[in-house]
Write a structure and sequence with these properties.
This protein is an alpha/beta fold. The chain is built from 16 helices and 21 strands. The protein has three domains: 114 residues; 273 residues, 3-Layer(aba) Sandwich (Rossmann fold), CATH 3.40.50; 95 residues, no CATH class. This is Helicase HerA central domain-containing protein.
């Protein structure tokens, strides 16, 4: 049975012209033009009652027809008017499609006949149709993602297919103050109601630290090194791959950079092999690589590099006289004094408490079992037996130094991705539990490489680009959130098959979003600057149709409200917090 049950009085006009993708409709009587708003969906019956063509109004106009002389009189008759709308066909609804009821396809199966009535889709019809588009089914256990209401009809709930939203990646884009953080919080709230949700949010400014349902994690700051709390997370140096270590301590502008890289490679392999030997794991000793996450003491790395920097080798000759008579003669080794600057950079980072989460982790992070504990903290969810904490994890990176932020964020993402890759897939890939990575403020660590980027940023990009290209196979989804899409990697954005665009006013940002849309939807660019706060255009596999939605407000909003300057200046002064801020600056942490 069709979801559409229109009668003639509900029509807004009749088809008067048809081409391959557009239909011209004459609106009569004139008062029905009020229902013909640009962006509204309409339905036109196709070849039979089972088939309805779906279109979107993209133009409305009124023409005056030439006045005519009334027969037998000198006066002119009042000029009649002709009201017309132009509709772009965007798909076909079939009440019955084989064994399936209520099927929608983007294909235009047929074109309408002249004189067919055109009906606005509104009210219950709009909600029923958009539920089909949003893949809402009749399963009572199925929970669709209720993201808001439709701008066309605020009584109709807007749903998205969350499976396709996350497995095919999504980008949430909008200017400052447009409602991005609230949208993220709304999605997290609904994900938290699911039995085994698994989400990791990269929080760069501490905006989401007050969400009561989320498991709060914080990358250790200088004040956490002595007595770290339960929610403090260390990322020890041995988690870094060889290339990540290089980007952290090797200066590629130096002439000795190749020698430094080789020395680091040999020293890391030596340090890891010593750990494996001490554990008596001969099978691992034969299989591990320089990138294998095997714990080793950072002081051992310094010692090995120092030995290479001070190394002297035998010349094969002996002293024949003097105090050294009979002793072998030596010469400077191949790396003698060529690693001095490298060692200085490394020692500076070891002494800097801001990098303590890397180089000053507690002994509990230096054990063979430490990797499992770290991954359980990041990837655990309530569906795992014995795991009682929330599946929504907020990782606060606000105390991570900005110069290493890209590589540290990508380290967490890479670790999660690699665990998913090496998880036994099981039958029908049921062995891998899907996980979503929410990349807040993505432009800070996923930069557009066209403007030139550092070695640290390049390595971070490589990790995330691999996830964007291959994550779907292993159950890793990306939600990229940014206020400056023009500054985000185009490679990553191009892999996002769903775009949630809030208000955008910058021309560069608008052009980036438009380039991600199909050609037929390019006109959506004109809508973006005029969107209200909390209003978005949603395009992609999660909805099938370009949809303008008023987003729901979260019950627990993040700490991202814009401060009202004038109102605060007009209010009574508050307690002076400058002294505490000065102490926080000195301690590089918020007490």
């Amino acid at each position: 049975m069709s979801i559409f049950a229109f009668n003639e009085e509900q029509s807004i006009g009749e088809v008067r012209g048809v081409d391959t993708s557009r239909v011209e409709v004459r609106v009569y009587p004139p008062d029905k033009l009020l229902k013909a708003r640009v962006g509204r969906l309409v339905a036109i019956q196709g070849q039979d009652a089972n088939e309805w063509l779906i279109g979107m109004i993209n133009r409305v106009w009124r023409d005056s027809v030439e006045s005519q002389i009334v027969s037998g009189e000198d006066d002119f008759a009042p000029p009649p008017e002709q009201n017309t709308i132009q509709v772009t066909l965007i798909g076909t609804y079939l009440a019955k499609y084989g064994e399936k009821d209520d099927h929608f396809t983007r294909a235009v199966v047929s074109l309408p006949d002249i004189n067919r009535f055109v009906f606005p889709i509104e009210g219950n019809s709009l909600e029923a149709f958009m539920s089909i588009v949003g893949y809402v089914n009749g399963d009572p256990n199925f929970r669709p993602l209720h993201i808001g209401t439709y701008a066309l009809d605020r009584k109709a709930k807007a749903f998205l297919n969350a499976d396709k939203l996350f497995q095919r990646h999504a980008a949430l884009l909008g200017s400052t103050g447009s409602g991005k953080s609230w949208t993220v919080a709304t999605i997290l709230e609904q994900a938290n109601t699911l039995q085994s949700s698994n989400v990791v949010l990269f929080d760069l400014h501490g905006e989401y630290t007050k969400l009561p349902y989320a498991q709060q994690l914080r990358i250790a700051g200088p004040g956490d090194l002595a007595e770290p709390g339960e929610n403090v997370l260390f990322l020890p140096h041995w988690l870094l791959t060889f290339e990540e270590i290089q980007s952290l301590i090797v200066d590629y502008s130096e002439q000795s950079a190749p020698n430094q890289s080789m020395a680091v490679l040999e020293s890391v392999i030596r340090a890891k092999s010593e750990t494996i030997e001490s554990l008596g794991m001969q099978d691992l000793l034969e299989l591990f690589t320089v990138d294998s996450p095997v714990p080793y003491p950072v002081y051992r790395l310094v010692q090995l590099l120092t030995d290479k920097n001070e190394e002297e080798t035998s010349t094969g000759e002996f002293y024949v006289q003097g105090d050294k008579k009979g002793q072998p003669k030596t010469k400077q080794g191949p790396l003698h004094d060529k690693l001095t600057r490298l060692l200085i950079r490394l020692q500076n980072k070891l002494d800097d408490r801001r990098y303590g989460f890397l180089f000053q982790a507690p002994d509990s992070y230096q054990q063979y079992e430490s990797l499992y504990k770290i991954t359980e903290t990041l990837m655990g969810h309530r569906g795992i037996s014995g795991y009682e904490r929330s599946g929504i994890k907020v990782v606060d990176f606000s105390e991570v130094p900005s110069d290493v932020l890209p590589i540290i964020v990508s380290l967490v993402a890479r670790l999660i991705y690699q665990i998913q890759v090496w998880t036994e897939p099981g039958e029908n890939n049921t062995g891998r539990h899907p996980i979503l990575l929410v990349c807040d403020e993505a432009h800070l660590y996923l930069p557009n490489s066209s403007g030139g980027i550092s070695a640290l940023e390049r390595k971070s990009l490589e990790n995330f680009e691999r996830i964007a290209k291959e994550g779907r196979k292993y159950g890793v989804g990306l939600l990229v959130v940014s206020q400056r899409p023009s500054d985000v990697s185009t490679t990553i954005l191009s892999q996002c098959n769903n775009i949630i665009s809030l208000r955008l006013t910058n021309d560069r940002d608008k052009s980036v979003v438009t380039s991600l849309l199909p050609d037929s939807l390019g006109g959506i660019l004109d809508i973006l600057p005029g969107l209200e706060v909390g209003e978005a255009v949603v395009v992609g596999d999660a909805t099938l149709l370009p949809t303008r939605i008023l987003l729901n407000r979260p019950k627990h909003p993040p700490l991202s409200s814009t401060i009202d300057f004038w109102s605060r200046w007009n209010a009574d002064g508050e307690e002076n917090t400058l002294r505490q801020a000065v102490e926080n600056l000195r301690r590089q942490g918020r007490s």
